[in-house]
Design a protein that fits this description.
By secondary structure, this protein is α/β, with parallel strands linked by helices. The chain contains seven helices and nine strands; from the N terminus they run E-H-E-E-E-H-E-H-E-E-H-H-E-H-E-H.
Length: 224
C-alpha cells in the first residue's frame, strides 16, 4: 500500500538516498528542508520549507502524511559533540513527536542507536530519550538501532571487520559484537524502506541483525 511520507532530515546523509527508494516503491514523499535548501531535495519529492527545531515553521504542513521518518541529527557523531546532540538531536525529536501526534501521523520511524555500549554515552543518552518520548506519545513506531553505518565518508571501520568477525564467534564477546555490529548504508535504506512499507501495531525495534536482514532481502528482491 502506498504511504504518504513526511521526512525530517530529507537532505541529509540517509535522507537523500532514502527518498528515491521510497519514490521507486510508489510512496508519496515530502521532505522538510531549511529555507534556501529546497533544491537539495531529490527530484520527485516535494520540498517543505521549515526549521526542524522550530515546530511553528512546519507542524501545520505534516498533514496529510500518515508516516513520519525522523532523520535529523548531527553529522559524524563523536564524543566531542555532546552539546550538539542536546541542541540538535534531542531538540528535533522533542519537536517532531508532538507535531506528528497533532497531525494524525499513524507511524513514526526513528533512527536511534545500539545500546548499551562502552562509549558514546552522550549520544546514547539523547537517542534513548528520543525512544522514551515516542513510547510516551502512544504512536505506532519503528525504532532502528544501528551502531555504525558504513558508507561514503564513513569507511574507516572496514578495517575493524576482521576483529568483529572474531568477536562474533567467541562466546564471551559474541552478544556485544552482534549488538554493536557494523551495517552498511544500503542496508539502512532497505530497513527504513521496509519500515515504511510495513507499519507495525505498537513499537517495533530493528536491531543490527534485523537491519542486515532487511538489507539482504532488499538486495535479493532488487536482483530478482
Amino acid at each position: 500500500m502506498a504511504r504518504n511520507v513526511f521526512i525530517g532530515g530529507g537532505t541529509g546523509y540517509m535522507g537523500r538516498r532514502l527518498i528515491p527508494e521510497l519514490l521507486r516503491r510508489g510512496h508519496q514523499v515530502r521532505a522538510l528542508a531549511r529555507a534556501g535548501s529546497e533544491n537539495k531535495v531529490p527530484t520527485g519529492c516535494e520540498a517543505v520549507a521549515g526549521n526542524p527545531l522550530d515546530p511553528t515553521t512546519f507542524a501545520n504542513k505534516i498533514s496529510p502524511s500518515d508516516t513520519y521518518v525522523h532523520l535529523v541529527g548531527v553529522a559524524h557523531p563523536s564524543p566531542s559533540k555532546a552539546a550538539q546532540f542536546q541542541a540538535i538531536d534531542l531538540k528535533s525529536i522533542e519537536v517532531a513527536v508532538p507535531a506528528a501526534v497533532a497531525a494524525g501521523v499513524r507511524h513514526f520511524i526513528y533512527v536511534s542507536v545500539a545500546h548499551p555500549a562502552p562509549m558514546m554515552h552522550a549520544y546514547i543518552k539523547v537517542r534513548t530519550r528520543g525512544e522514551e518520548l515516542i513510547r510516551q506519545s502512544g504512536l505506532n513506531a519503528t525504532i532502528l538501532r544501528p551502531w555504525y553505518v558504513l558508507g561514503p565518508g564513513h569507511r574507516w571501520p572496514y578495517l575493524l571487520k576482521p576483529l568483529y568477525f572474531l568477536a562474533e564467534h567467541l562466546p564471551s564477546t559474541a552478544e556485544g559484537a552482534r549488538r554493536l555490529g557494523l551495517v552498511t548504508l544500503p542496508q539502512m535504506i532497505s530497513a527504513l524502506s521496509y519500515a515504511v512499507d510495513t507499519p507495525p501495531d505498537g513499537i517495533r525495534i530493528l536491531q543490527v541483525q534485523d537491519i542486515r536482514f532487511c538489507g539482504e532481502r532488499g538486495l535479493a528482491a532488487s536482483a530478482g
